[in-house]
DNA sequence: CATGAATGAGAGTTCATTCAT
DNA sequence: AATGAATGAACTCTCATTCAT
């Protein structure tokens, strides 16, 4: 399941080639994060990677392709953010709290890249697809979790699990975007991160009508 | 409180000038909606407005400025979408349902423009500001509503009204974006609009822990 | 002997027309002096004259033509700068000193316009001709003066009067240009005006080998 | 002491790049000399250099910059025009005559470029500075020469050497400009070059009150 | 006599991509 | 595998001049 557009170039075989390719991807990440996709020129990237403009095309066929390679890097971190696995038999509220926290932390780590993805997904259909695939993976996982809670009699049975997951996942991801991307870009005073997390989790728990036991004690 | 960037050009005084300016804005809306901001060339706009390239600069100083004028058009419709006012003493659940529906309907009417705003707000700081100002107006209104419900003992008193509003407003606006912009752009089968609305409203109501009385009977 | 390009437009007959034309010329002088010929836009001039762009063409056929009208204004002041007539039977040295001083004072009064003339005469052949005609008038007058001094046995008889006048007139006019235009434009400390005048006059007198009697006592 | 504006582009390292850059500068000189600065379009230059419009920007950032490069070419020839060095212990009159002749000859060789410099120095402050720096070098050299003659008791001690040099240098350079640029541009009958030179030198010598010995015998 | 909107050719400039070396 | 000069289409923007009102 390739989440990123296929590369049209083979991966290099020699160590030198691998090194150059890595340098280009790393440089591209820096440049893209610093200037955004549109304002980054290929020549900025090759200069940062200390190679010539022509060399770029040994490894990538276009600007889009190297962006795909850059975004690929953060993929696993965003899709499986939990460093420690959560036991699904733990208290559901604690699981949700931990999961939300893990998502926010991953977002924080990859904020610049998420901003980039948001930018290009509104420009290039290929990247819109990429973003949607990632969002869908997140939505499906949450839908499974909601369905499981419903089956165990813990969550509001009236809710369509997939639609509910779409809504709640949207809520979380947009909160993260606003917090880590928008507010940061506008040099706003940093918002109340913990408060945000607590509120988001409480809303999520309420929304599913889970028993309230111990919201907020997730640390 | 001008939500849009100020024009650097005076409004024309003669009827003819007014007509031409309107034709340009209308043409710009069509062109932007059809090709997106980046791919729209000024010459496409002037051609659609049946005037010369130079005439554009009689009324606008740049592509950004005419986009601002275009977005200005949809402003009131997005900020005050309800055609019929809701009585705040109605059943809270009914109010929320009606309000969400009104938002979705306004989004549907202005979907292309919202897509445009999403695109440029990730490119141009001026438009990021514009989007945030509009989002904030929406968030503040919902926050007041939540606070009022709390004061009347109907909503979960533990919630910070502003943070909760941010979260729930994010949920609604992102759902609308995904439904009317993303899915449409990708030629997906149209989603279950009514189901989405019902779920969103139920989640909102649950999240605030409002009494359940008559969720979903908002039609 | 029209020193300026002919106007293609008749002078207006009504008082209103005369007023508008005058306002345009005055405005053009201000605008040209402030921004130079190339950077002045017709619309700047009409705005300054408080009339519309179209009105301009009631009185002038082009940007060049109004410049000609502006330069015409300073013509007499530059060609006959002496307010009080010098008696040609005065001491020749005193006559030269007074004449140089008068030239410099006229240059000072019209410095901005001279800068303008210098600018356009290097761009537009029509104005090159205008400048040369004025320079020639100055040169011829000085040539006559030199010839007269030679005939009276006072000046170096070996000199060709016309060539000598060209050289000495060039010296004076270029000194004035450097002093009032170049140095002023570059925000240099104002040069030693009196010293310049004394030196220029002494060089002129020496160059003609006039008797030295009373150089510098020209005040 | 760079007299020309610094380049914003690095000089090319490869022979091919050097060749292309040279072709562009040579083409620019031809085009500028033929059409003047303002009427020369970049595309005329690149066409004459047989390269594409984009290539221009590999070597220069603007039209001004390539003009600076063109003017740079003639710099040394104008500042050190004497092919054979003059022995400062020669007869002073002969030295002056030789020096004036050398200046005129250099002006003749670079007349088109001098016209160009005169044109742009009245348009662009950067080139006004350039012209002044070159004029100043010329003035300073002549001032030193005058001072030396004064110290040796040969020249009028009453003269301020710097002011006198400014005046006499202005005289010479303006004569050259009028002879080689203005008269040529207006298709006038060629003036009496030798007569001009003799007169200019005689005036210069007279102006300094040098002993007359052998004026005009400088050939 | 006055208006001011409309014109439109043409300029300089950018940069992803190619390709001869 | 690497170079970097060359490409060229496409863009935005300007402003003297015209003309219908």
Question: What would your notes on this structure say?
Answer:
The structure is a homotetramer of 219-residue chains. With 219 residues, the first copy, chain A, is mainly alpha-helical. Chain A has two domains: 15-72, Orthogonal Bundle (Arc Repressor Mutant, subunit A), CATH 1.10.10; 80-208, Tetracycline Repressor, domain 2, CATH 1.10.357.10. The first copy, chain A, is built from nine helices and no strands. The first copy, chain A, has helices spanning 15-39, 42-48, 53-59, 63-79, 92-109, 111-121, 125-151, 161-185, 193-208. In chain A, helix 5 packs parallel to helix 8 (161-185), helix 5 (92-109) packs across helix 9 (193-208) and helix 7 packs across helix 8 (161-185). The radius of gyration of chain A is 20 Å and the shape is elongated. Chains in contact: A-B, C-D. At the C-D interface, helix 6, helix 7, helix 8 and helix 9 of C face helix 6, helix 7, helix 8 and helix 9 of D. Chain B binds a DNA duplex (21 and 21 nucleotides) through helix 1 and helix 3.
